[in-house]
Amino acid sequence: MKLSVGILGATGEVGQKFVLCLQNHPWFEITKLYASPKSAGKTYGEALGFGTDSCRWFLKEKPKPEILELKVQSLENIEKDVDFFFSALPSEVALEVEGKVAAEKPVVSTASAYRYFEDSFTYLPGVNESHAAMIEIQRKKRGWKGFVVPQPNCTTVGLALSLKPVYDAFGLEGVIMVSMQAVSGAGYEAVSRWAEQRKQQGASLPEPLPEYTPLTFEGNVIPYIKGEEEKVKRETVKLLGRFENERIIPADFKITCKCNRVPVLEGHTESVFIITRQETTVEDLKRCWREYKGEPQRLGLPTAPPRPIMVLEEIDRPQPRFDVLRERGMVVCVGGIERNVFERGFQYTLLSHNTELGAARGAVLAAEYLFKTGYLT
Question: Could you list the residue range(s) of the whole structural domain that residue 229 is in?
């Protein structure tokens, strides 16, 4: 029998991704959909305006007819009659809603609301399964029968996963990262705004504009994403830290970053500069990435790729238009691996899918691990 699943925030961008990831899942079955009160009482298809000119379903793959016929229920009246929940809620409402649900049932979330508490198990599959004991600590501390397991920030995901094998094998003294992040990471409204800008631009090439307009994506680079750099720095050392005496001790390397929004639809590209503690070579780095397998691979989880990291030999790869959907967007692609002028210094480019591995499908993989290890039953 499959576990029954409820999706919180089912009509939004990530909620729709959850529907696609789960509608043919071998272990999980969608039985409840929740959204804002304005969608409550409608079928999922009606809430989305599916098949109309104002349809809010924006993915190419379509939901199954039986999913479109499911009644959407209000987030104000969540029934705890499923085995567990996925949450695609905005962070500003997730803290209250997820907490109420977790009092009775497990929640696997893409929101940031529960990432930074001392009793949080922010889980990146293949990186920090050793932190899973935090679940029981959270339950005990909060008096919950369930728990909340949030996913890391989508920009952190590719960086932390690429650093894990290197940190384990050679240690790290310092990490510098510069991101080039997809517009989809800012949500559906940002993508819609960019699409309108492209339409207005027409066939001509973008030229400098005389007046500043916020959120201009077309032909532009936005060198600031609110709160992003703080999240990446904080989460990376926590994910690579060690569990000790009922708390997580952050990894002991220095890290800094600069995050930018660029006119790309999907896929966060990052330029990464590292200094290892032990002497190594470019070939050693490539080998440790190629050979690395985490718990999802060892357990044979259905959403896990054969290997979590893919090394590309071309000096000008990875590139989002060509590489973001490798292994259904569930791998971190690494390329352009070189020594640099610093002692034990190396640099590389990585690409990770911000709305697959970095959001819904990554959360489904996390839930598969929690199920396989007994936390969901």
Answer: 154-353
